[in-house]
């Protein structure tokens, strides 16, 4: 089963709602790939022995791994943490997340600065490129178990928008420009 993604409706309602536009406007995996978002669907029930996951980790240099349970019962200051994750930001490195249980949303900005909501569920592994504006929230189930992967030691430093002068953002914009051959305006 492929991941689901769609253009979001801007709304001040609960961030954990789907926020579909009316009518719904789904986004293809190809469109996500054009933005640098990578996707695999794996077997979350056997991640310790998953040959495909091993190959992905090896080929992309993901040497560090940890597990994270996000839910009100297991996270101190849950609501505040969720608000922090939902603040638009970039990272200097890729963000790699593999959903083992539960579900949640990663929102990314497209080339026209529109939000695309990506609904990850058990088995979905996504890679967000360094420099892409994004945010994260749980859905209405309020639970997700994630594997976090990193190249080398874990660095998870969010740089809140605006970050147009950050080297990772400049490199990301350059990569999009090279793919499309058209200069992009800064957002």
From TrEMBL:
Its EC number is 1.13.11.54, 1.13.11.53. The keyword ATP-binding does not apply. One of its GO terms (biological process) is L-methionine salvage from methylthioadenosine. Fe(2+) binds at residues 89, 91, 95, 134. One of its GO terms (cellular component) is plasma membrane. Ni(2+) binds at residues 89, 91, 95, 134. Binds either 1 Fe or Ni cation per monomer. Iron-binding promotes an acireductone dioxygenase reaction producing 2-keto-4-methylthiobutyrate, while nickel-binding promotes an acireductone dioxygenase reaction producing 3-(methylsulfanyl)propanoate. One of its GO terms (molecular function) is nickel cation binding. Keywords: Amino-acid biosynthesis, Cytoplasm, Dioxygenase, Iron, Metal-binding, Methionine biosynthesis, Nickel, Nucleus, Oxidoreductase. InterPro entries: ARD (IPR004313), ARD_euk (IPR027496), RmlC-like_jellyroll (IPR014710), RmlC_Cupin_sf (IPR011051). Its cofactor is Fe(2+); Ni(2+). It is a peripheral membrane protein. It is found in: Cell membrane; Cytoplasm; Nucleus. Gene3D superfamilies: Jelly Rolls. It is an enzyme of class 1 (oxidoreductase). It catalyses: 1,2-dihydroxy-5-(methylsulfanyl)pent-1-en-3-one + O2 = 4-methylsulfanyl-2-oxobutanoate + formate + 2 H(+); 1,2-dihydroxy-5-(methylsulfanyl)pent-1-en-3-one + O2 = 3-(methylsulfanyl)propanoate + CO + formate + 2 H(+). It holds the Pfam family ARD. Pathway: Amino-acid biosynthesis; L-methionine biosynthesis via salvage pathway; L-methionine from S-methyl-5-thio-alpha-D-ribose 1-phosphate: step 5/6. Belongs to the acireductone dioxygenase (ARD) family. HAMAP family: Salvage_MtnD_euk. Catalyzes 2 different reactions between oxygen and the acireductone 1,2-dihydroxy-3-keto-5-methylthiopentene (DHK-MTPene) depending upon the metal bound in the active site. Fe-containing acireductone dioxygenase (Fe-ARD) produces formate and 2-keto-4-methylthiobutyrate (KMTB), the alpha-ketoacid precursor of methionine in the methionine recycle pathway. Ni-containing acireductone dioxygenase (Ni-ARD) produces methylthiopropionate, carbon monoxide and formate, and does not lie on the methionine recycle pathway. This is Acireductone dioxygenase. It comes from Punica granatum (Pomegranate).
């Amino acid at each position: 089963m492929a991941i689901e993604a769609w253009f979001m409706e801007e709304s001040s309602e609960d961030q954990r709602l789907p926020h579909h536009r009316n009518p719904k406007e789904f986004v293809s995996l190809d469109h996500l790939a054009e933005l640098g978002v990578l996707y695999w669907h794996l077997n979350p029930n056997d991640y310790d022995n998953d040959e495909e996951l091993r190959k992905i980790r090896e080929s992309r240099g993901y040497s560090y791994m940890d597990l994270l349970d996000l839910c009100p019962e297991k996270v101190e200051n849950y609501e505040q943490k969720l608000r922090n994750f939902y603040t638009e930001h970039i990272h200097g490195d890729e963000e790699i997340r593999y959903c083992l249980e539960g579900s949640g949303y990663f929102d990314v900005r497209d080339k026209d600065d529109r939000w695309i909501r990506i609904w990850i569920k058990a088995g979905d592994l996504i890679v967000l490129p360094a420099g892409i504006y994004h945010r994260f929230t749980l859905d209405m189930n309020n639970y997700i178990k994630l594997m976090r992967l990193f190249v080398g030691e874990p660095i998870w430093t969010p740089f809140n928008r605006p970050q147009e002068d950050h080297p990772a953002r400049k490199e990301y914009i350059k990569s999009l420009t090279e793919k499309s051959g058209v200069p992009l305006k800064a957002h």
